[in-house]
Design a protein that fits this description.
about 475 residues, alpha/beta, five-stranded mixed β-sheet, 13 helices
């Protein structure tokens, strides 16, 4: 079975003539490109502390579409729950999705100038505060790669920029022309659908600098409808969509748009270490991932880390710090990170390793380390961790076999990965809640095993968990000795 690309599928409207926008029926067909390369995933967002849940950042389209076998969304396959009996079609085959309206708040071009360094070349709207975006859209060290893409945060917005480096016969440009074309949105759930467009536009900017008409047309077509304050985007969430996701045991904050294959790459890259990252994510620690360019694949690791901490039990985690993705950060973000209680981010700047007060855990490629003595025991992999990783690996093998032998195009590694950790987290907190409500609220070795944890190897993790999530009434049995 061949490897799936981590690049965006080509958008139909990408190659539209530069100065023209499609009209009429042709416009409807061209602009209804799928928002997710995985047809089984509802495009439901993740609240990222912006005041409006991602996935609800703009008025959604009124139609609900169903996934085709090839993973694309078929507008003609409208799901009407009342049209069939509850037992006619398996729930997995009736997963629905909804299309968010576009909510682009800015589009911009950043260039590298041999005299002044990174600089903002052009943007819409002209009065948008884009200070510092030039250092996010062209990451430190990007001159070593020919192409890249970067996810980042700019204030209350999320951004995606595509970078390209082209050799030129120009002494003034020192033989290389480097540019990046990017967009900003209140949500990162829709950014991925514009990857191909941005990649195409940055190539055009390298070949024909100053030709902005395609970007102007794009912004006019996709710009968000902002509230008078300009702080957030008008939001309307269809209740039936949230209900469909919840009925499928999918937490509304869990299923977000992501590239096909990023989860499987994450698992292969970290191996058993993902169990360490899982615990740290669940404990809401500040995780900083370092890697030299290219940045794009590292931004995917940030997203995957966030998926490790999903919980769908109502009320659980309401009082703990939100585990927020910052994606790519540089030295200009130091002030913002100083005020964060919990986050996961990535950087190409090695100087961050010396800023030990900014993070709890530092991930240098596959090396997970911490300078905090109280967290060092958590970096050891317990027997229960190995067993969980073995189960995850077996489930992946079974899924891949089913895809290879039976042509299963409905299930995906991404869904398997997310559900695996969601169910594990729910299992832990369901057990904790039941023990806390019992006449004898004491955690015994038996109840710890029921959570899928190691009574000895995971004792410190459990103590941290009880403290952070406020299970003050629970007592830990003396039998749970430190390993």
């Amino acid at each position: 079975m061949g490897e799936r690309s981590d690049r965006a599928p080509l958008l139909d409207w990408e190659e539209i003539p530069s100065a023209e926008k499609p009209t009429g029926a042709d416009s409807k067909d061209r602009l209804s490109s799928p928002s997710n390369s995985l047809g089984t995933s509802p495009v439901l967002g993740w609240s990222c502390g912006l005041g409006v849940p991602d996935g609800c950042g703009a008025p959604p389209a009124t139609s609900i579409t169903q996934s085709g076998a090839d993973g694309t969304l078929r507008p003609d396959a409208v799901e009407h729950p009342s049209d069939s009996g509850p037992g006619d079609v398996p729930l997995e085959d009736r997963m629905v999705t909804w299309e968010e309206k576009d909510q682009i708040v800015s589009v911009f071009v950043v260039t590298f100038n041999t005299r002044t360094g990174n600089m903002l070349e052009w943007c819409l709207p002209k009065d948008m505060d884009l200070e510092g975006v030039e250092f996010k859209a062209i990451a430190s060290g990007s001159h070593r790669v020919t192409t890249d893409f970067i996810y980042f945060r700019k204030g209350s917005y999320f951004g995606l920029a595509c970078f390209a480096n082209m050799a030129v016969e120009s002494t003034a440009e020192r033989g290389a022309r480097m540019k990046s074309v990017g967009i900003l949105s209140p949500s990162y759930t829709l950014l991925y659908r514009y990857m191909s467009f941005l990649e195409h536009q940055v190539r055009l900017q390298l070949q024909s600098p100053g030709h902005y008409s395609p970007l102007e047309a794009f912004y006019e077509d996709k710009r968000a409808l902002l509230l008078p304050s300009g702080d957030d985007v008008v939001s309307v969430c269809p209740i039936n969509v949230w209900g469909a996701a919840i009925n499928h045991s999918m937490h509304p904050e869990m299923k977000i748009t992501h590239p096909a294959g990023c989860m499987s790459q994450f698992i292969r890259f970290f191996g058993e270490q993902i169990m360490v990252l899982w615990k740290l994510a669940l404990l809401r620690r500040r995780i900083l991932i370092f890697s030299p360019p290219p940045v794009g694949v590292v931004c995917y690791r940030v997203y995957c880390c966030c998926c490790l901490a999903n919980i769908s039990i109502p009320g659980v985690g309401a009082a703990v710090p939100e585990f927020r993705p910052f994606f790519y950060v540089n030295v200009a973000d130091i002030g913002a990170l100083e005020n964060e209680l919990s986050y996961v981010a990535c950087t190409t700047e090695k100087i961050f390793e010396e800023k030990r007060d900014l993070y709890d855990v530092y991930v240098d490629n596959q090396n997970v380390k911490t300078y905090r003595e109280g967290l060092k025991p958590l970096l050891r992999i317990s027997n229960a961790d190995r067993e969980k990783y073995r189960k995850l690996t077996e489930q992946r093998k079974m899924l891949l076999y089913s895809q290879e032998e039976n042509g299963d195009c409905v299930s995906s590694e991404e869904d398997l990965f997310i559900l695996f950790f969601l169910e594990q987290n729910n299992r832990i907190f369901q057990t904790l809640s039941e023990v806390a409500a019992s006449p004898d609220p004491t955690l015994t070795a038996e109840s710890v095993r029921a959570m899928g944890l190691d009574p000895h190897g995971d004792r410190l993790f459990l103590l941290h968990l009880l403290e952070i999530y406020g299970f003050d009434t629970l007592l830990v049995s003396d039998q749970l000795c430190c390993s």
